[in-house]
Amino acid sequence: MKGVNDYNRQKAVKYAYEFAYKRNPVFTDFSDMGGNCTNFVNQCLLAGGMTMNFNYPFGWFYKSINSRSPSFSGVEYLYNFLTRLDYTKGPFAKVIELKDTQIGDIIQFRQDQPKFTHSLIITKLNEFDYDNPFVTTNTSDVADKPLKDYYFNECRCLGVVGGRK
After folding, report:
1. Do 83 and 60 form a contact (C-beta atoms < 8 A)?
2. Is the pTM of this model over 0.85?
């Protein structure tokens, strides 16, 4: 697709494994400010070759704790940015079925709240159960945890398509 960066899923997953149990000091750790999960997923997208969009407040970027887009640390903001149809610069995704996910795709879920509150990256597929991929995340640091080991009311899957230049 013209004007689209390829998403390197392997590099995103490699980054997820490297920082699943520690924090990259380049980024603020939001664990004590509501959670680091979406920040972590965004770092994985960056590692996978996605380009930042510095359009505040509706872009997708991180410079510091005081200079970042809401989509870099907010679950709903990330969803809204990734699924926009206005062809803005930065990564984009589409909502897909769980059975259609690949490594490097994103899962978000909600637990007893009206809003989605958690983001995870798929780091390994389950060849015996396509509806139960293995996920990696920060805040409650885990690597390759089966999705079905989480309690949630609803999940949505974001298939990362690539990044617009």
Report:
1. no
2. yes
